[in-house]
């Protein structure tokens, strides 16, 4: 499983390494420039995953870093003053992932409670009631939703955990790309014009069917799931990833912003990139638990 995971990441990295200069050579319109930025960012993301995959601790630490990046963007959106006090949530995010690694469940509850309390303390003096509640809800969603990645890693031996995680990430992020391509190609009726005007039924169904087929082929290579189990799991990941995307879109509409930040050129912020993982990660965790532990 580990060999297959690294082979897949290496192939993607090599393909993007060839594709990036071609896009740059022939990019002169705004859309092509954005495509170049998106692909370049994906190159860095895949390179980081490839390097982190050589050490299990690195993957847990990477999960904590991603959560902290999302919290940073949320703090900036709410115009919270960043100071040395924000070091406390950062350390607690790291501790939370390590608690999952060691499966220290009592300590996990304590660290989670301290993390939520620290965020409340940092926001209560500035934000009024409605925004503070939204800030806490969004923070909890990113902390708990992305911590499922560590749960997936800890649920299996290292080789299987990395394969399961890579399957989740490929399906979830591939669904975003497929939805965009199908939606742009076919257009059609919008699903939620208010929250996300760019999402259409053609894009949603096209992404769901495309990634289910990819999951059918990819699942047995990276996980212990059979081809049909993997296809069903991929369909569930796409479905719940869509709802996670909508939840972050609702957050952005409340703040009247286009992206959660500018951390990832061509994509927006870290929150824009991981939004589809917020619900699908835990769903996939329980899906694996059900099928692999009958």
Entry summary:
By secondary structure, the protein is mainly alpha-helical.
How would you describe the overall organization of this protein?
The chain contains eleven helices and two strands, in the order H-H-H-H-H-H-H-E-E-H-H-H-H. The two termini are 21 Å apart. With 294 residues, the protein is mainly α. Helix 6 packs parallel to helix 11 and helix 7 packs across helix 9. It has a two-stranded antiparallel ribbon with strand order 1-2.
Q: How much of the sequence is in beta strands?
A: under 5%
Rg estimate, integer Å: 19 Å
Mean pLDDT over the full residue set: 90
**Order of adjacent strands in the largest pleated sheet:** 1-2
Q: Mind describing the biggest β-sheet? A: 2 strands, antiparallel
Low-confidence stretches: none
Helical run tally: 11
Cα distance, first to last residue?
Answer: 21 Å
The backbone outline, from C-alpha atoms, is globular
Order of helices and strands: HHHHHHHEEHHHH
Number of strands: 2
What share of the residues lie within helices? over 70%
Helix/strand/pairing class, anyone? mainly alpha
């Amino acid at each position: 499983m580990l060999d297959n995971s690294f082979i897949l990441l290496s192939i993607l990295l090599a393909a993007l390494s060839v594709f990036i200069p071609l896009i740059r050579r022939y990019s002169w319109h705004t859309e092509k420039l954005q495509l170049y930025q998106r692909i370049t960012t994906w190159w860095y993301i895949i390179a980081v995953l490839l390097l982190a995959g050589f050490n299990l601790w690195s993957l847990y630490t990477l999960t904590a870093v991603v959560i902290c990046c999302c919290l940073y963007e949320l703090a900036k959106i709410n115009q919270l003053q960043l100071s040395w006090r924000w070091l406390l949530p950062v350390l607690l995010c790291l501790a939370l992932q390590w608690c999952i690694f060691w499966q220290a469940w009592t300590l996990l509850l304590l660290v989670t409670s301290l993390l939520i309390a620290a965020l409340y303390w940092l926001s209560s003096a500035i934000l009024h009631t409605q925004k503070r509640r939204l800030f806490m809800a969004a923070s909890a969603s990113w902390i708990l939703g992305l911590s499922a990645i560590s749960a997936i890693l800890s649920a299996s031996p290292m080789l299987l955990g990395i394969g399961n995680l890579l399957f989740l990430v490929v399906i979830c992020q591939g669904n975003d790309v497929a939805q965009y391509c199908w939606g742009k190609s076919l257009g059609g009726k919008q699903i939620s014009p208010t929250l996300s005007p760019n999402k259409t039924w053609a894009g949603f169904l096209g992404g769901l069917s495309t990634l289910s087929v990819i999951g059918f082929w990819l699942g047995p290579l990276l996980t212990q799931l059979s081809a049909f189990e993997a296809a069903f799991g991929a369909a569930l990941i796409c479905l719940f990833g869509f709802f996670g995307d909508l939840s972050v879109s609702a957050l952005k509409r409340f703040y009247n912003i286009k992206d959660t930040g500018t951390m990832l050129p061509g994509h927006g912020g870290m929150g824009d990139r991981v939004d589809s993982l917020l619900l699908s990660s835990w769903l996939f965790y329980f899906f694996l638990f059900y099928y692999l532990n009958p």
